[in-house]
Amino acid sequence: MGSVVSSFGNLCGKEKKQEEERHLRANDRPFNLSYLYANNAIKTSKYNVFTFLPLNLFEQFTRLANAYFLFLLLLQLIPQVSSLSWFTTAVPLILVLSMTAVKDASDDINRHRCDRQVNNRQVNVLTDGELKKEKWMNVQVGDIVKLESNHFVTADLLLLSSSEPLNLVYVETAELDGETNLKVKQALTVTGEMGDNIEALSTFRGEVRCEPPNNRLDKFKGNLTVNGQTYGLDNDKILLRGCTLRNTEWCFGLVIFGGPDTKLMQNSGKTTFKRTSIDHLMNVLVLCIFGFLGTMCFVLAIGNAIWEVKEGSVFTAFLPREAGVNAALSSFLSFWSYVIVLNTVVPISLYVSVEIIRLGNSFYIDWDRKMYYPKNDTPAQARTTTLNEELGQIKYIFSDKTGTLTQNIMTFNKCSINGKNYGELFDFSGQRVEVTEKTQRVDFSWNQLADPNFIFHDYSLLETVKEGNPEARAFFRLLALCHTVMPEEKKEGELNYQAQSPDEGALVTAARNFGFVFRSRTPETITIMEMGRKVTCELLAVLDFNNVRKRMSVIVRSPEGKMTLYCKGADTIIYERLHPSCKKLMDVTTGHLNEYAGDGLRTLVLAYKDLEESYMDGWRQRHHEASTAMEGQEEMLNELYEEIEKDMTLLGATAVEDKLQDGVPQTIEQLAKADIKIWVLTGDKQETAENIGYSCNMLREEMKDVFIVAANTAEGVKEELQNARRKMCPEAAEEPSVIKARAGLFWLQKTETVRDEKVDGDYGLIINGHSLAFALEKDLELELLRTACMCQTVICCRVTPLQKAQVVQLVKKYKQAVTLAIGDGANDVSMIKAAHIGVGISGQEGMQAVLSSDFSFAQFRYLQRLLLVHGRWSYLRMCKFLRYFFYKNFTFTFVHFWYAFFCGFSAQTVYDEWFITLYNLMYTALPILSLCLFDQDVNDRWSFQYPQLYSPGQLNMYFSKKAFVRCMMHSCYSSLILFFIPWAAMHDTVRDDGRDIADYQSFALLAQTCLLVVVSAQLCLDTHYWTTVNQLFVWGSLATYFAVTFTMYSNGMFLIFTSVFPFIGTARNSLNQPNVWLTIFLISLLCILPVVALRFVLLQIRPTINDKVRHMVGKEVLPSPAPRRPPARRISTRQSGYAFSHSQGYGNLVTSQGFLLKRPLKGRSILFTQTDSALAENKPQQYRTITEEVEESQSSHSW
Amino acid sequence: MASSYKDEDGHISVKKPENTAFKQQRLPAWQPVLTAGTVLPAFFIIGLIFIPIGIGLYVTSNNIKEFEIDYTGLDPSSPCFNCSQNFSWNSTKPCTCSIPFYLEQPYESNVFMYYGLSNFYQNHRRYVKSRDDSQLNGNEESLRKPSKECEPYARHDNRPIAPCGAIANSMFNDTLELFYSDPNGTKTQIPLTATGIAWWTDKHVKFRNPGGNNDNLTAAFQGTTKPINWRRPAYELDSDPENNGFINEDFIVWMRTAALPTFRKLYRIIQRRNTMVPTLPRGNYTLEVVYNYPVRSFDGRKRMIFSTISWMGGKNPFLGIAYITVGSVCFLLGVILLFIHHKYDNRNNNPDISSN
């Protein structure tokens, strides 16, 4: 059959059509080559030496601005139209193109280098019965390669065999999906049997049929045919390129996808291009300018027609028309001539300058020491260099919780044992002492197995345990026994726990340090070191955790034969199942629990129950029956569990701190002051999320109300949302007020904006994933948005990654506000990509979030610096730049417009052509750059002191269409002054020796000098932050102008290039005239003074927040920041329902025979099969994760 | 780049950014703020400076004497009416007209004599570029092969035109002569200096005759033809070899195109000879015009202007008035701003930032 298929395949493989199925045979190169599958060489570079120039130029000319200038250049080559020499456009264009080309080239050289390095990596390939070293790029589909530990996986491989038992291999997928934990892959038994038998491998003739190349990392479908037998293949048997082999001596793999077909390459290079709102506005404005340009040219062309009819036709004696040109044609030509002359309204250097400014501001972010995190040597990083100014306009922040607000480190913080509270420190007067870094820690050195990283401050607990207090001992024994942690002891005494949830790890570690060391486990036993004494308990049953039970129990038999049930779980659940005799203890413990909850700690209640031998026998029998039952297994087990987990005795409670990152509450407070709304979107449970909300100051006790939306039907959700809204704002209309508008290029884009509604007092909203799913439906989304936006704080819990993105999109769609998403995990990627700006927290949960983010840093608290300092400055600078840039170019251009009325609409320029060429490139480029790289209204400390300074950015106050129109009016005024004052001052004047000065060249020189002085003065007026560089550039540019002008107008230049520099002597002859200087002085003041007066009046009448702060900066020293008050302790009445942070337990795995039977001899604990979906789980860091196979539906609730 | 080192806590800091003022955006800077203390005095001071300057300029400008005659001859009563009516480029006999006028004031110092043209678009783009600077600079090659810019005045009768182009072709060619009529009836011609009227750089650098210092201009211009409208070839513009050909100053002055359609160009200088006698005493004069230049067809005007000059050039009251106006406005603005400042000052001194 194989041959038939192969010959068939041969036939169609030749045609390069969409691959529908991949078919390959191991060790059969000729067969595989017939399909023309890509080999393993990769090419990420775009150009080679020969294609660079044409391709790159083509790419550059697809940009509108460049194409426009090329068009202008072509226009200028038509002599009838050309009003300017070709170089006025060519020089800037060539400069811009070459700058971009150099950048592109260097990028591409880097890619080439990278490719070469990767392609030349060596790997062992099985050819002709022996292993040979081969370069990666020469590996073909169907080859068998041998990988060794810590090698990168060469291509997408089908795992054949490995050195490890059960044909397992361990891979790290950090480069692929960002997860740092190891994953397990397992080969088929049929291939695994070959081991490292080269002979067997080289005669292996398995045939693989599988899906065509695609970019889904978590799915693989295919089958393998060996000796007529067909075996299914799934993702577990595939090693993907980009992974690294770990802890596996060797393995063999069959290449399935090579080079560009690998899932890694299929996944790369499809980044969505984010653009800032200023970008969009700029495009619209440039379009407006085009229209405006057209109008101006049209007006002038009409003028030209009139002039030609009235004046030109009679002036022909001195200025004959060219053959065949009549008034109409002349007017048409003059239209295009004016397009050329006035082209400077669409400044070619605009886009380049914008890019340079953004790049500069990105570098500042990279360089900022205050966003550098020394603990893991991570500086902040601007991964996208085109979004800076948007950082100054953020209105909504969507934050992940775990790893972003919190460190995802659980520490055993407090406990209550038998009604006594441990973990707090008091001084002699009985006052609670704040625990700081310097507080003395409990010394665990007596315990050789203690975890050195464990920190506890309360000595009394250790003393209690050492005294032999039975409750305390039972408490820690429970913690040491009742869990599903896997121990790993590579060397004697070097214990490492692998816990599924960090909470559990924290609890077991606590027990370990207090002398109850969990040492090892087998399916039937648990060995612990109890105060130095080895105790092996028989594990009779694990009553596993799930979301409904919210508790877990183990039943163990101690060496003495005593049988005990140990149970830990959520307080509400456990309390229902306690023996009535515990009533008094329960009350005391409840008090403690409330205290813990008030501190934002995660609590668990511990209880135990001694069991009778006789009862147990029966129960175990029934348990066995239930667990082997085919139907209704779950219900039967649940019933059994319910039956045994009752009448328990309360031991106490634990409190685990989900440690907030440093400075989170302060950051949130600052951002709130800056009028930024923060929504927390977390996969955590409602209680946890609520806890964190309180501990990081988002939810406060003094809030009027905190609404919780947790309905299970669409109607229910709607009602709850409406109730909340009516309560907050009873007078609001039932229907949301939606403003419909049009925006974007050509006003094609329809926008709908939901107006903000004013609400008295602060409210909070908590909504869970189920309700969110309903609320995000089409008919409810506006209701959700309205209600949520009325609240100060919004917390969404149990959200899937998709919902995170949906929430972001909802706000983006209806609020027309700039959003920022911050997160650290793979589950935040969707939201990071959806938001205008994505920020990745680096360091905690791998690199996935960082890789798809626009900015990254190590700590949440740096967000305030990123926004309030860098973002604000970037926005300010960009707006200043745009306002100034448009002003500068409009002023420059409008003068031509006025001059047209005096030169017969002939498209004669006012300035020297060289001035036109160099104006944007040389005379004004550097000062404006220094303005936009150094300017700051107030320094960073004042920015923090007054977060309100941030709000103008949110309201688009510094640059908008209105500001643009204002710019144009200002330019119009300036250009009128710039033209008509010289006109009036010069038209009948002569030099002080009687000779001419009203000639065209002198007039041009005067006009251009005035223009440059005026725009420089305007720049000085706009500069708020005068560094030496600014001074140097401003004065340097003016000096350059005079130097260049005198040089170009010198005898030497004229004699060498006679026809290029016809302005000889103009500078000397007119700049020595007093009235020329008097005119320049007059014009400068006339342009500047009204601006100063207007600004001063505005400053007096309507000072902005910036003005006020700047005023204070000028007068005062910075007020010292208010002393940080310790957070007031809240005695909360909220019951903490929190139990575990993980999903369905995996007790059955712990006890399952198959998995533990073949324990690796090297003493490395086995790792269980990983869940496939990278997005679907929460990965704790402190402890290496063990995750279990979960169904897709469950996993979405499980982080 | 940052080097690898350990910080106080023992963390390895390879990537720690450098602590420079530039990278940390802490460059020392001066941060000026617009305050009443700076703005108001500035306005008053500017006002106080501008008004005196303006008065000085105005007085200077007013002291300049200027006299202007329009001799276009549009009005039938005008002496030049006939000449303007019967104009033809090809007429061999020049038409002359004489215009008598009376100077009410004596002109003490050097008097500059200008001709002025109106509605003449010397700044039209096609006109401005219709010249060949290389040719005018004495380049032999350009002399034989004028630049394309000169079209349609580059070649005539298959010979290159020297000087080529529309500007040269349309050179002003009226001859103006001035006669003083003594009270006793005798007419004396007033000597007019024709040199020293062009820019030094134009005369000595920009314009050069072909063939270098060759005295024989006729030979240098061999093979070229005169511009169509000219009556004489370039090498016969003047008898003085230093003022002939391309370096003829009348020609140079004409070639410096005007910025605006109404302009005046220096024609002659009347040097003051005797410190005791005014250059132009009060009395009757006659302006003798050889009327060659046609302007009537395009509604142009021709004028003759006498003017004295001062340190700030010719008569132009605009600058003085502008300075006085701006100075006064500044002063006034200063007062208004002071008033506004006074009114809103209290509110400003207690900035309530938190309320924003």
From TrEMBL, chain A:
Its cofactor is Mg(2+). It is an enzyme of class 7 (translocase). It catalyses: ATP + H2O + phospholipidSide 1 = ADP + phosphate + phospholipidSide 2. Residues 850-1103 form the P-type ATPase C-terminal domain. ATP binds at D400, K401, T402, E504, F545, K568, R602, T682, G683, D684, R798, K804, N827, D828. Residues 1179-1199 are annotated as: Disordered. GO terms for molecular function: ATP binding; ATP hydrolysis activity; magnesium ion binding; phosphatidylcholine flippase activity. Coiled coil: none annotated. Its main location: membrane. Mg(2+) binds at D400, T402, D824, D828. Its EC number is 7.6.2.1. PANTHER family: PHOSPHOLIPID-TRANSPORTING ATPASE (PTHR24092:SF177), PROBABLE PHOSPHOLIPID-TRANSPORTING ATPASE (PTHR24092). This is Phospholipid-transporting ATPase. It comes from Kryptolebias marmoratus (Mangrove killifish).
From TrEMBL, chain B:
It comes from the Eukaryota. It is a multi-pass membrane protein. It is found in: Apical cell membrane; Cytoplasmic vesicle, Secretory vesicle membrane; Golgi apparatus; Membrane. Keywords: Cell membrane, Cytoplasmic vesicle, Disulfide bond, Glycoprotein, Golgi apparatus, Lipid transport, Membrane, Transmembrane, Transmembrane helix, Transport. One of its GO terms (cellular component) is apical plasma membrane. Belongs to the CDC50/LEM3 family. This is Cell cycle control protein. It comes from Kryptolebias marmoratus (Mangrove killifish).
